[in-house]
Amino acid sequence: MKVFNVGTSQQIEIIPRYNGVINYDLEIFNEDDRKTVLLDKNDLTVNMSNFPVLRFSFNYTCKENQTFSLKLLDVNNSRILWRGKAFSTSQDTQKYKINV
Fold first, then answer.
1. Which of 19, 60, 72, 90 has the most Cβ atoms closer than 10 angstroms to its Cβ?
2. pTM, two decimal places
3. Residue 19 main-chain phi, psi, to 5 deg
4. Strands 24-30 and 67-74: what pairing?
5. Looking at the domain covering 2-89, what would its CATH class be?
6. How many CB atoms lie within 10 A of CB 23?
7. Are 75 and 41 in contact (CB under 8 A)?
8. Residue ranges per domain, the chain?
9. What letters, b where the CB count within 10 A reaches 16 and e where it falls short, cover 46-61?
10. What's the alpha-carbon Rg for the chain, to the nearest Å?
């Protein structure tokens, strides 16, 4: 599970199912208000310096104690590259590490 900070600037690190994809969309489904937001490549900043881990930075405003379902999509092949959950909090977030 990923942790979002209350506010606008978010960052997640993931390991996708497929490599070599350059066009990403991130689908954020708010499980509380049942609304979906689709962020495209213009909304996402991708850092691939720690391959195969991808770090995405984006602006998304959330409130305290909301839960989200996340999907990273390959725009060209309509594949789901990664799927996960997120939770928003105003508390200090812990440093989670991805085992590679």
1. 72
2. 0.85
3. -105, 165
4. antiparallel
5. mainly beta
6. 11
7. yes
8. 2-89
9. eeeeeeeebebebebe
10. 13
Two tokens, residue 90 = 């105003």
Structure tokens at 32: 């509380």
| Per-residue tokens: 42 | 């213009």
Q: The tokens of 10 are what?
A: 């978010």
Least Cα distance to 58 among 73, 74, 37 occurs for 37
pLDDT in tens, 58-88: 999 999 889 999 999 998 888 999 999 999 8
pLDDT band for position 3 (cuts 50, 70, 90):
confident
How many CA atoms does the CB half-sphere of 54 hold within 13 Å? Answer: 21
